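Q: My labmate handed me this sequence with no annotations at all. I'd like to see what the chain might look like in three dimensions before we decide whether it's worth expressing. Could you predict it?
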Amino acid sequence: MLRPTTKDLAKAAGVSRATVDRVLNGREGVKKRTVDRVNEAIQELGFVRNIQAANLARSQRYRFVFALPRSGDLFLEEIIRHIDEARETFASDLVWCDVEHIDENDPHSISAFLAGLDPSEITGVAIMAPESPQVRDAIFRLQERGVAALPFIADQSAMEEHWVGTDHHAAGATAATLIGRFCSSPEGSVLVVAESMRSRDSLERRIGFDAEMNQNFPNLRTLPSLETYGDEERAKHIMQSAIINNSDLVGVYVLSSEARVPLTILNGTGNTAHLIKIAHERTPFTEVALKDRQLDAVIAQDPGHLVRSAVRKLKAITDKRVATGSQERIRVEVLLRTNI
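A: Here is what I predict for the chain of 340 residues:
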């Protein structure tokens, strides 16, 4: 049976095809009872709009910007690589993806950047930035100007319905489970290293980690989070001091997305080979570390899936559709030396 067309829809609703077009595109000038008749006909016929054909007819183009931190390491490079791939993957959908860098430590400059985007040029924005009132309000103002926007990897609590990323609480709890199960010592302390605890993903990972540790592994003592702020010298100083001052150390959890610097420092420090080491995100560095047994496990979120999901969600918002929930769920993956 052929799919119903707008001609079938117009006949069933008793209106012209021009009226159907106005209803489908949400244009003004159509009486409510007429809109209701068209919507009833849509339900009766099982009409599904061909968005791609409609976009071609009205020359619809999508330009999506990924607003990413200026500072970053290998995981950010993986994200950018997949954004480059997305340009080709979504080219047939008339989608163009671009990258703009923001200062993730300055919410006022992020707000100014978002305020300066031109709705006639930008269709949607995926924003990777720590939660703050300034960023939250700037996103809402951007949406009011007709630009699709969603948090990317770093969540904003007021926009949990549309954000793209994993369940950070579950990721932290998974790290605790791995350390607790791998540990053969009856008791000991666990070092937690973060770039910054200001970001919501780091906070939620730490909360999930502590909850699992306290409930199921009370014999292990979790130390206060060490914040490196992306400074290698600071990271070296505070990590080596923590190792010297905690002789009962049994494990290290690097909960930030960039593990290269903390793990390099850790592996270059004497008497740490016995420690259980858990980190986040699959990068060339963490792959090699797993293979060389310098890292026990990686808790990952697929960067390609993250980027593709962001594009599909931004496109769905623009087209006034709802993205498929199961397709956009980003799973928490556990990588070991044996499954990379």
